[in-house]
Design a protein that fits this description.
By secondary structure, the protein is an alpha+beta fold. The protein has 2 helices and 4 strands. The protein has a single domain, classed as Alpha-Beta Plaits, CATH 3.30.70.100. The structure holds copper (II) ion (CU).
Length: about 70
């Protein structure tokens, strides 16, 4: 298991947090997601044999937020 913290731009409310959390939890290999609105971050526990931070960034970009590793 690995942990990464992603930076996310564009989150403004609890609805955004929920959207980002759901998008990350849908990804294969993700076991835990903690999104912090105030920091604009998502900390994700994931299986590096299944997914990568770049894939998680793409999942966030897909729902309209700007994410980076
Ligand atoms: Cu929002």
């Amino acid at each position: 298991m690995a942990t990464t913290t992603l930076n996310i731009q564009g989150m403004t409310c609890g609805g955004c947090v929920k959207s980002v959390t759901n998008a990350l939890q849908r990804e294969d290999g993700v076991s835990r997601v903690e999104v912090v609105l105030e920091n604009g971050t998502a900390t994700v526990d994931y299986d590096p044999a299944v997914t990568q931070p770049e894939t998680l960034v793409a999942a966030i970009d897909d729902i309209g937020f700007e994410a980076s590793v």
